[in-house]
Design a protein that fits this description.
The protein is about 45% helix and about 15% strand.
């Protein structure tokens, strides 16, 4: 047991690392040294410096881990430094590691810079052996406690360090409880645990090929090495990819003197939050478990009691914990996640960190801390992310729908998730890849379930609380999660769940509500999120919970809009989408794709244009299309009156407007066999064959169409100009911008612009209206980016088409490669994220930067934007801000996300990291 002494007083000189070394005492670091000491070590040092009751210990740095991972060997100096710090720890505690009569025991715990809950390894009770367990029993006056601690060590060490299948230990433990006729491990007595220890040692000897080590220093050294190794386990790498954590950071290792929560009813362990991580509300939130060690809480193997009950169990410790929680939140100026142990009435702090939280909690907490004067609005803006805002815009269950309630658990991570019940991670991944939506149902999750948790729409467990593995990981990923639904009996072997006599088999549809903890049978209808209703002007801040969230979102969005430099436009092709985008805060349209106006009933008119054999036929087809195009633009300019509208002239290859070649060939062949062939079908088939290209996305499209088909672009420019003139004569304020797609050389743009200027002049003369239409181009080919200085001579604006630019820079087709090899590239770490999701800063981004510089060197007033889907990606928005663009454009639903991230970029954020 740890000696009850105050931590060392830290001198100012000891707060910064002195020279090159690999081990630091808890008295030497501080919270700002996370790169070196990891999050856990840095915060243990900070709590020690604050005078809080932290068990003494030391931290092995991430630098030592990096050396080990690169070379396969620990640094030569590491053993000597560890020995020196262990000697100092033993001198302070007045006992030796693993000594026979009164052993010092330590924990060896991982601690990377970014929290990776459950992904890396921890070993408790190091120093116990066949000899020292007897001394621990005598010293503690509790034989059961000593043998319980020993069986825990062998179990954790065997699985974590020696690679023994953890299920073997669990099966032996379950068999022992069954033989005793009990259901929880605390009901096993000392004799039962002695037998279990012998079984565990036999399992180790058989499956690890060696005996459990009795030398305490060997235990510690092997555990340290195992923690280093755990940085590169499959589950850790998968979690880092999911959370976009760099793979070269390494983990620190914390060696801490043990304190024991399994010493009886006056002992216990718990996890506490200074605010509710699910909602953000202030109060007493957390879990407590009597007579347990810390892993029992997060593993969810025994159901905890709410933290508030600690007041009646141990009021002295409860009051002290409340004071410490308030002090930590004030010190860190944020929600804190705290691990603690009570050893026979003595409170010990084992960890604190800025806690993971749900999206709603993030917005509420940020505004609460502003109101409390702990942070300012600029900092509040940095505390939330576009990814979190996107989560808040997901639908929720309809309160008015008829439902069949199966049960209720703990609302661990909000959202409305519907899917087929699956009972293991393998099935969750397999079904998800086949297009099925699934809910992963487990008694409790563990780190090995991570891939299934990622694949699932939501997670449901029958055990555990808000601090269990499932809850913590789900909140970090933004996944819907309900934990501790005790009424649900989960049978993973038979792949079924039973509740109240009803059996839910694998494949049955269930719905889980992470905001209420309710679990329903079947699919529950969803309704729009209150945040979406707010953006659409259908909801205002009020008194209830949803309105409180809306009020928090409103405040932060208002500040983001005040400080951002980037304007945000929408990709919209019709008046309906334009009006929605405007309600969502769009400051114009950055991309109107005119090809969408040629579909449906108008496809036949395009076919006439394609089939035209003479100038007269072609002109007739264009004349039929002109009034329809004009009407579209009149509606669009009215919807976006006073705001810029960038209209892209026809871009896709013409074959997209013709019937499928296979379908048409079959139709013609059948008609010919019946001798009733349709003349138009024959002409269409000839046209399809004529226009067929091996790679149409690199063929006759974009500006090339305007140059090859006389009058096509002129018709579109005339429709835009006439619509703008009509709107202006109706006292409106049309601000049309004409964008020429797929330009690769300035000569292409010059020819099209000369024709466009002539058409605009004709419309101005005919309508008596002065039109201020600007003409620019999309930069979506590498050559366009490389010759941007020349192209800017003929362009009044650039809009980067990053979808095509990514395809042409990388040399692959998005439609083909995402399904064929992107998964392998992501798994192998070639991609941290798909370059179609977040812009490739080194490749595509380099071309964007050079094009911006060259374009503005030629034309200082050149307007610059982006209209690919990257315009709504949080991380990419930061890049576009740094690159000097004027605006981003994205789909209407992503506009609020882009607005928020543009504000965060302007306020000094270095990225959209939500960890």
């Amino acid at each position: 047991m740890s000696e009850n002494k105050d931590p060392h007083v830290t001198t100012p000189e000891s707060r910064e690392p002195q020279g090159e070394k690999f081990v630091y005492d808890f008295t030497e670091g501080n919270k700002d040294l996370k790169d070196l000491l990891g999050g856990k070590g840095a915060n243990l040092a900070e709590m020690t410096n604050l005078g809080l009751p932290v068990p003494p210990g030391f931290t092995i740095t991430t630098e030592a881990c990096k050396v080990y991972l690169e070379s396969g060997e620990e640094p030569a100096e590491l053993r000597t430094e560890v020995s020196a710090h262990l000697d100092a720890l033993e001198a302070r505690m007045g006992k030796k590691l693993g000594q026979a009569d009164d052993p010092l025991l330590v924990s060896v715990r991982s601690g990377a810079k970014f929290s990776m809950p459950g992904m890396m390894d921890t070993v408790l009770n190091i120093g116990l052996s066949d000899e020292s367990v007897v001394g621990l029993s005598a010293q503690a006056g509790d034989e059961r406690f000593a043998w319980d601690s020993y069986r825990r060590l062998i179990q954790m060490f065997g699985k974590t360090v020696l690679g023994v299948d953890g299920d073997l230990f669990e099966e032996a433990l379950e068999a022992a409880k069954e033989a005793k006729g009990v259901t929880v491990d605390v009901d096993l007595d000392a004799a039962d645990l002695k037998k279990l220890v012998e079984q565990f040692k036999k399992i180790v000897a058989r499956d690890a090929g060696r005996d459990f080590p009795q030398d305490p220093r060997e235990q510690m050294d092997l555990a340290i090495k195992a923690v280093f190794d755990s940085w590169n386990t499959d589950r850790a790498k998968l979690y880092r990819r999911q959370e976009r954590i760099p793979g070269d950071l390494g983990t620190a290792v914390n060696v801490c003197s043990m304190v024991f929560g399994n010493l009886g009813p006056d002992s216990g362990t718990g996890v506490a939050f200074t605010r509710d991580p699910a909602s953000g509300h202030q109060g007493v939130y957390g879990d407590y478990l009597q007579n347990a060690q810390g892993e029992d809480v997060v593993a969810g193997i025994r159901n905890t009691v709410p933290l508030a009950e600690l007041e009646s169990i141990d009021k002295k410790s409860y009051d002290q914990l409340m004071q410490i929680m308030e002090a930590l939140e004030t010190h860190y100026k944020d929600l804190c996640d705290i691990e603690f142990t009570i050893e026979r009435g003595q409170l010990w702090m084992l960890q604190t960190r800025v806690g993971k939280r749900t999206a709603g909690a993030a917005f509420r907490i940020a505004t609460q801390l502003v109101d409390q004067g702990l942070i300012d609005e600029a900092e509040a803006l940095q505390r939330v992310t576009g990814a979190q805002l996107a989560q808040l815009m997901f639908p929720r269950f309809d309160d008015e729908a008829k439902t069949e309630l199966l049960g209720r658990g703990i609302a661990a991570s909000p959202g409305a998730a519907v899917g087929k019940a699956v009972f293991d991670s393998y099935t969750a991944v397999k079904w998800s890849r086949s297009g099925e939506k699934v809910i992963l149902i487990r008694r409790e999750t563990n780190p090995d379930d991570l891939d299934g948790m990622i694949a699932a729409e939501g997670i449901l467990t029958s055990r555990g609380g808000k601090t269990s593995h499932a809850a913590v990981v789900a909140r970090g990923m933004g996944k819907t999660c309900v934990c501790g639904a005790e009424d649900l009996e989960v049978d993973t072997k038979r792949r079924r769940m039973t509740v109240g006599g009803r059996v839910i088999e694998e494949g049955d549809v269930v719905s889980i509500d992470g905001s209420t903890g309710k679990v329903y049978l079947g699919e529950v209808p969803v309704v729009p999120s209150p945040v979406v209703e707010y953006f659409e002007g259908r909801m205002h801040a009020g008194a209830d919970d949803a309105d409180e969230l809306v009020a928090a979102v409103h405040r932060i969005m208002a500040y983001a809009d005040r400080v951002r430099r980037l304007r945000v436009r929408a990709n919209a092709d019709n008046a309906e989408d334009a009006l929605r985008a405007r309600r969502f805060g769009a400051q114009g349209i950055g991309l109107c794709r005119t090809e969408h106006m040629f579909l449906g009933e108008r496809r036949e008119m395009v076919e006439k244009l394609i089939l035209a054999d003479t100038d007269a036929e072609r002109e007739t087809a264009l004349e039929e299309l002109l009034p329809l195009q004009k009407a579209d633009f009149v509606e669009l300019f009215e919807a976006m009156d006073g705001l810029p509208v960038t209209v892209r002239l026809l871009d896709p290859p013409l074959h997209e407007f013709l019937p499928d070649i296979t379908e048409l060939s079959v139709r013609v062949a059948l008609a010919e066999s019946r001798k009733d062939a349709n003349e138009n079908d024959l002409r269409l088939l000839q046209a399809v064959h004529k226009l067929h290209e091996q790679n149409p996305m690199l063929g006759l499209r974009g500006v090339r169409l305007g140059l090859v088909i006389p009058g096509l672009f002129a018709m579109q420019v005339r429709a835009i100009a006439e619509a703008a003139a009509e709107r202006k004569n109706a006292k409106g304020d049309p601000r049309a911008e004409i964008m020429i797609p797929l330009v690769g050389t300035v000569q292409e743009l010059e020819i099209v612009r000369e024709e466009a200027d002539q058409v605009i002049a004709e419309v101005e003369a005919a309508t008596g209206t002065s039109l201020k239409l600007t003409i620019g181009t999309m930069i979506e080919l590498p050559r366009a980016a490389l010759t941007a200085g020349q192209i800017a001579e003929a362009a009044q604006f650039f809009s980067f088409g990053t979808n095509d630019l990514t395809q042409t820079v990388w040399g692959f087709s998005r439609d083909d490669v995402e399904a064929s090899f992107f998964t392998a590239y992501l798994e192998k770490g070639i991609f941290g994220v798909s370059p179609f999701e977040t812009i490739d800063k080194d490749g595509v981004g380099s071309l964007v930067r050079s094009a911006v510089a060259a374009g503005r060197a030629t034309r200082p007033d050149l307007k610059l934007g982006v209209c690919g889907e990257h315009g709504g990606d949080p991380e990419s928005v930061h890049f576009f801000h740094e690159a000097g663009l004027d605006y981003v454009s994205c789909s209407p639903f992503r506009i609020p996300v882009a607005r928020l991230e543009a504000g965060r970029a302007a306020a000094g954020s270095t990225g959209s990291d939500s960890r």
